[in-house]
Specification:
single chain, about 400 residues, alpha/beta, Rossmann fold, 8-stranded mixed sheet, globular
């Protein structure tokens, strides 16, 4: 079978969509199928093309047996709604045009969160007369409303009509959460057509390891209790809560004991860094995005991983993929996300919940962990055991079976 996969994120980009797509496609190739990925030049999230790549009309490479076609797009940093929309629209057009030159395709997969990529997948399936799969990673454009990135409700209403049209036209929908599936059914989409394949973790890469001594010394973290956030610094993540926490601890009697690491880039990174400088938050360390290999070394520094999203009903339906990476590495979680992901934290016993956007609650959780080694050890031991239930290889096989049915 020849699977054509359209995605606007792919390695060497290191965000969740890129990792999931690569790891799934790699497993499908290992299962004996042909996979072609159409994507753009790697540039997320800074909007700068990675070294060794160019933003050209057509580039081709092979990685892990996957044929990768990279097309030209309008490149913009992950900030500013208008520019990002131009980025999305340009990939929809060039990705679709590139698909015309890919022969003998049996099925097309298009992945969200933004659905312009999925529009290209649908158009490609029509032209080639083959079925197509909508991989649903986010309820978009509703998430735009939540973070206030766009105020023009009439445009958002129109986008939501397109969204529902695509759901109904998809041969299959693969959702990353059960809550997304329930939401679609509530909006009138046929539930029999929706399958759930959660995010997961490559346990061959994300496994328990000792703290990286080189990075520990570089950032002067010896003897500290290190809590950190690793991922996109977007409006939806409300990382100001972590800075609120750092500000309180900075002036507390045992404040020197704690350090915070914020690793990644995004629309809110500059504002967070500026606030930390203005307020003299020398207990917060900012690190720009790093390679996939180096990010694992940074994960190893954490005594606790902070996972956080804004307090909103929509985000109760989200399961941040970094939760599974924390499990794989045996890192206790301070979880500031309500809903389905919180249920996983509790049922797998891998961390402490705190109320989103409540810095006081976060501080309490931080103190509890730092002062209870028995608790920390329990979470560390439970994480890798739980991660086996979310092994990316098994989940890739599950999604492949859904595709094979078509």
């Amino acid at each position: 079978m020849h699977i054509l996969f359209l995605t606007d994120n792919f390695p060497p980009e290191v965000n969740a969509p890129a990792s999931r797509t690569f790891e799934h496609c790699r497993e499908w190739v290992n299962a004996g199928h042909s996979v072609t990925v159409i994507t753009g030049a790697p540039n997320f999230p800074r909007g700068k093309v990675f070294e060794g790549y160019h933003n050209r009309i057509w580039q081709q490479e092979f990685v892990a047996g996957i044929r990768i076609i990279r097309v030209w797009t309008y490149i913009s940093a992950n900030e500013g709604f208008a520019k990002r929309t131009m980025d999305y629209l340009s990939f929809m057009v060039t990705g679709f045009l590139a698909s015309l030159f890919v022969r003998r395709v049996d099925v097309v997969v298009g992945t969200s969160p933004q659905f312009f990529t999925v529009c290209a997948a649908y158009a490609t399936s029509l032209l080639k007369s083959v079925p197509w799969v909508f991989e649903l990673r986010d309820i978009w454009p509703e998430s735009i409303r939540v973070v206030g990135a766009m105020k023009q409700n009439k445009i958002l209403d129109l986008l939501e009509k397109v969204e529902l049209f695509l759901y109904r036209k998809a041969s299959k929908i693969v959702s990353v959460t059960n809550a997304f599936r329930d939401s679609l059914i509530h909006r009138g989409v046929n539930g029999e057509n929706i399958h759930v394949v959660t995010n997961g973790v490559d346990i061959s890469r994300f496994s328990p390891r000792s703290k990286d001594l080189t990075l520990l010394q570089k950032h002067q973290l010896e003897g500290r209790f290190v809590a950190g956030y690793i991922g996109t610094h977007g409006l939806a993540h409300a990382l100001e809560t972590i800075l609120d926490c750092a500000k309180v601890l900075k002036d507390s009697p045992d404040g020197e004991r704690y350090r915070f690491i914020l690793l990644g880039d995004g629309a809110n990174k500059a504002a967070l860094r500026h606030r930390a400088e203005v307020e003299g938050l020398n207990n917060v360390i900012f690190v720009d995005s790093v390679s996939k290999d180096l990010v694992v070394r940074y994960w190893s520094l954490l005594d606790a991983s902070i996972i956080h999203l804004k307090r909103d009903e929509l985000f109760k339906t989200v399961i941040p993929s970094k939760l599974f990476e924390c499990m794989g590495m045996g890192i206790p979680v301070l979880h500031g996300v309500q809903g389905e992901s919180a249920d996983i934290v509790v049922s797998e016993d891998v961390g402490i919940l705190f109320e989103p956007e409540n810095s006081g609650d976060l501080i309490q959780g931080l103190h509890r962990m730092a002062n209870d080694q028995i608790m920390i050890n329990r979470y560390k031991n439970n994480g890798p055991k739980a991660a086996k239930n979310y092994d990316r290889a098994i989940l890739a096989k599950k999604m492949l079976e859904i595709i094979e049915e078509l």
